Amino acid sequence: MILSACVAIGSEAPYRPSALTRLFVAIEGLPFGGWWLYPVLYLALGAYQQVAVWLTGSGPVGTLTLEPVAALAFGPVLLAATHYLAGAAARAMDIFRPASGMSEGDFTARRYELVTVPAGEVWLPAAIGALVGIGSILTASPEGLAPYGSTVRTALIVLGPVAVFGYGMAAVFLYQSLRQLRGIARLLGEASTISLFDTTPLYAFSRLTAGVGLTVILGVYYAFAANNAYQFGNTLALFALISAMVLGVLCFLVPLLGIHGRLDDEKDELVRGVNRRFEAARAELYGRVDGSNLAGAKEVADALDGLETIRGRIERLPTWPWPPALLRGFITAIVLPIVVYVLTLIAADVVG
Q1: Angle made by CA atoms 331, 336, 337, in degrees to the nearest 5
Q2: Is the pLDDT of residue 2 over 50?
Q3: Domain range holding 340?
Q4: Are residues 209 and 291 in the same domain?
């Protein structure tokens, strides 16, 4: 298990792992890898909320309330996303290792730091998120709370655990993600053995930053779709969607921009090196021709052709630290839901 291996550093670990990391390790220790726990958690929240609706008299016993089922997904999905991105960070570090230039001990410690949140650090963001969740119930309109009871007290019983879990996990996800993104930027800035001819280690973190960005963007898309607020006439909804898109794109790009500048410099240095050698070989060939000393001239001409080939290859080397297919997929994931929604609106107007 990737996470278990990180935590198993034991006494040499820089710090104790948080309860969140220990939870992920425990989940991975369950049969079949434990990922089945997240849909089970979703069903458990749904069962609690349905029973709470019956016990508080907010709905007839035996009648299923389907209205809140979409909102139930936020807590389990964000917990699963946080778990997945922790494992993705460990995998990315292993791929990045050849470019890091670190010793075995330093690399092990930095891998642990990227994956493992220190003990005690998740409680504050979780508490802040939980308070926001409770506040969202306390400030909701009577119409919004109507399906969950006639009073705020009843709504807190029915919605409280779901809101606390969902908003709390949103805050924890953002905290872990920002911590990881900051760590990625630092690691890329300190990398000492980068090579444009070996792009695999340089691409290592792009999938992780893209995963964070897409989780932010698609999470907000889902929130507004689930709450039926994704409407072109809703200025606040549009502002939130645009802000989420910008934030998601920044999560993807910003940690990688520093290494892009270094790769540009590395490419310029490679081109200058080839040009110096090309000029030396050109001068050698001209000297032989001018002195009517053609012995070895063919070898020099072949060297010039080889240098020209190398220069062309260097000029085609990418300096953006992500594979082109990943960037296309990221853009598609952002744009496709908008296109589908617009087409849905057009179809509804035509049918209407």
Answers
A1: 120
A2: no
A3: 194-352
A4: yes
User: 187 - beta bridge partners?
Assistant: none
Q: Are 47 and 158 in contact (CB under 8 A)?
A: no
Cβ atoms of 17 and 116 within 8 Å: the answer is yes
144-163 residue pLDDT tens: 777 777 788 888 888 889 88
For residues 251 and 342, state if they share a domain.
Answer: yes
Domain-terminating residue out of 193, 212, 243 = 193
Above 80 in pLDDT, residue 120? yes
Q: In angstroms, what CA-CA distances link 140 with 67, 78, 127, 144, 148?
A: 16, 23, 20, 6, 12
Burial of 48 (0-12, 13-18, 19+ CB in 10 A): middle
As a whole number of angstroms, the distance between CA 285 and CA 51 comes to: 89
Give the residue with greater pLDDT, 203 vs 343.
203
| Cα(58)–Cα(199) distance, integer angstroms | 58
